[in-house]
């Protein structure tokens, strides 16, 4: 099965940061495992065009971190549509990251974001996850189910990847236990299978993934890859995550 290593740069980077990705690209090009995985980077909007041009025909694909809930052009100041993202050559977009949910993205908005992104042929990395309070109340499964049910539609079958990111784990160094994470991943896969009628849904894990924690995560064969925040800004850490995954 193909694995995914996705680097979410958040609010980080200038054109000079290309040097980080050049090192990652060099590593991949010589890696004996390179056929087994895909590397995708989601830089801020300001860098998409530069990175797409630079990595054309290379090993790194580029995506956006968010995509607006309207299709093409509108009068919403600051908004960037999926049409605009696709027009500069990005192939992927994150949708539903907890940072954006916190800022007001509801399930209804997310459903539109996903719909229009898919219409514009973007592959969607749809982020879901429970917060600490919900986890303590043992509501994890019901929260995840609702987040999926309210947004997914059957016609997204080929365009959607799920990233399970427990909010309490993002940027905190706290990670779920192997048992917990195995169960949630299997649970998410069962829901997606049913909803999309897809035999092999792709489910990634995100939240404090680094060169050390990956050694635990790699033991869970149900996980199809990772959404990596902090550690993706360092070429060394990002490369070590891939290396450690395969050793
Ligand atoms: P983190 O972020 O790896 O820094 O925890 C993950 C994310 O927010 O996607």
How would you describe what is shown here?
The structure is a single chain. The relative contact order is 0.15. The chain has 10 helices and 8 strands. β7, α9 and β8 form a beta-alpha-beta unit. α7 runs parallel beside α8. The radius of gyration is 17 Å and the shape is globular. It has one domain: Alpha-Beta Barrel (TIM Barrel). An 8-stranded parallel β-barrel has the order 1-2-3-4-5-6-7-8, surrounded by 5 helices. By secondary structure, it is an alpha/beta fold. The mean pLDDT is 97. The site of 2-phosphoglycolic acid (PGA) has 13 residues, from β8.
String of helices and strands: EHEHEHEHHEHHEHEHEH
Overall shape: it is: globular
Question: Which structural class fits the helix and strand makeup?
Answer: alpha/beta
| Mean pLDDT across all amino acids | 97
Largest sheet: 8 strands, parallel, barrel
**Hetero ligands:** 2-phosphoglycolic acid
| The first-level CATH class name | Alpha Beta
Helix share, percent: 25-40%
* Number of β-strand runs: 8
Please give the CATH architecture.
Alpha-Beta Barrel
Strand order of the largest sheet: 1-2-3-4-5-6-7-8
SS strand fraction = 15-25%
CATH topology heading: TIM Barrel
Tally of individual domains: 1
Measured distance between first and last alpha carbons:
17 Å
Tell me the radius of gyration.
17 Å
Low-confidence stretches: none
CATH superfamily: Aldolase class I
């Amino acid at each position: 099965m193909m694995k995914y290593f996705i680097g979410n740069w958040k609010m980080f980077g200038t054109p000079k940061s290309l040097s980080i990705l050049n090192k990652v690209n060099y590593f991949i090009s010589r890696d004996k495992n390179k056929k087994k995985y895909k590397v995708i980077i989601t830089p801020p909007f300001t860098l998409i065009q530069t990175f797409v041009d630079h990595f054309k025909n290379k090993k790194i694909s580029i995506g956006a971190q968010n995509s607006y809930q309207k299709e093409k052009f509108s009068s919403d100041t600051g908004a960037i549509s999926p049409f605009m993202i696709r027009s500069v050559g990005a192939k992927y977009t994150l949708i539903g990251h907890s940072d954006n949910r916190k800022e007001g993205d509801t399930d209804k908005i997310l459903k539109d974001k996903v719909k229009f992104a898919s219409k514009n042929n973007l592959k969607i990395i749809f982020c879901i996850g429970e917060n600490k309070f919900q986890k303590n109340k043992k509501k994890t499964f019901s929260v995840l189910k609702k987040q999926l049910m309210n947004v997914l539609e059957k016609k997204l079958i080929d365009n959607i990847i799920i990233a399970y990111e427990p909010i309490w784990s993002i940027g905190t160094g706290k990670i779920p236990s192997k048992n917990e994470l195995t169960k949630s991943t299997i649970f998410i896969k069962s829901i997606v299978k049913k909803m999309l009628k897809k035999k092999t849904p792709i489910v990634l894990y995100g939240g404090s993934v680094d060169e050390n924690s990956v050694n635990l995560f790699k033991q869970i064969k149900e996980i199809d890859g990772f959404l990596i925040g902090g550690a993706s800004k360092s070429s060394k850490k990002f490369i070590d995550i891939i290396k450690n995954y395969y050793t």
